[in-house]
Amino acid sequence: MSISEEGRAASLPLIAGSLALDFANTSSGRGGERHLDHLRGGADIVVWACHAGLIDEQAGERLRQKIAAGDEGFAGFLQDAVSLREAIHRIASAVAGRRQPGEADLALLAARCSAALAKATIEMGVEGARWRWPAEPLAETILGPIALSAVGLLRDSDPARLKQCPGEHCGWVFFDMTKNRSRRWCEMSVCGNRAKAKAHYRRSKSQAVEVVAAAP
Q: Which DSSP string do the residues of 76-125 spell out, in sequence order?
């Protein structure tokens, strides 16, 4: 983790096409020297949840107050959130690479869903049934929908559309919603352009070497 950069929980691009995958992407530069975790405390998780539209600002403020006051219900909030995030990322990375996800990660995801649903009720609306979380926000208010989003993605979506950006030290995961499954990068303007620039540099360097070698 780079200690010279601040987290961007409130401004991270939401480009994954899934709540769970966007949450998995709250860590940048995986595998590189500039690895940056944008979730450094419970408040960062709340900030991201508001940014992602998971909760509104009113609920976010109540959650931040609970965290600041040392509410025992949030004692392990950061650890639980990061554990869930890393499990989702490993599962998504495995599926994208046509590998079987680890049993421990699937078990953690199932346990998080079970813990969340124990606090939820079912509400019928004009669009059908939906989960309803307690009016007083809890840790499960954030982590529950994320875990359920991951399960829904794995259960109902085409696994061939779940991909991982091949950008150097990126690792972000996303659901490819293009008609012909042609999406390759997390963001073309970021990893795509970097890859193009590096390829151009390599070609230019190779051509320069060839010119020098051909000189009398």
A: THHHHHHHHHHHHHHHHHHHHTT-PPPHHHHHHHHHHHHHHHTT-EEEEE
DSSP, res 74: G
pTM metric for this prediction: 0.86
* Strands of the chain, DSSP E: 27-28, 36-37, 121-125, 128-132, 162-164, 173-175
Q: Which two tokens stand for residue 117?
A: 């649903």
Tokens of 122: 């079912």
**How many helices and strands (H and E) does the chain possess?**
7, 6
Strands (E), 133-175: 162-164, 173-175
Nearest residue to 26 via CA among 34, 11, 17: 11
| First vs last C-alpha separation in the chain | 50
- pLDDT, mean of residues 209-215: 50
pLDDT tens for 102-116 read: 999 999 999 999 999
Q: What is the pLDDT of residues 24-67, one digit of tens each?
A: 999 998 877 778 999 999 999 999 999 999 999 999 999 999 99
Nearest Cα residue to 179 out of 158, 205, 149: 158
**How buried is residue 27: exposed, middle or buried, by Cβ count under 10 Å (0-12/13-18/19+)?**
buried
Class of domain 19-181: mainly alpha
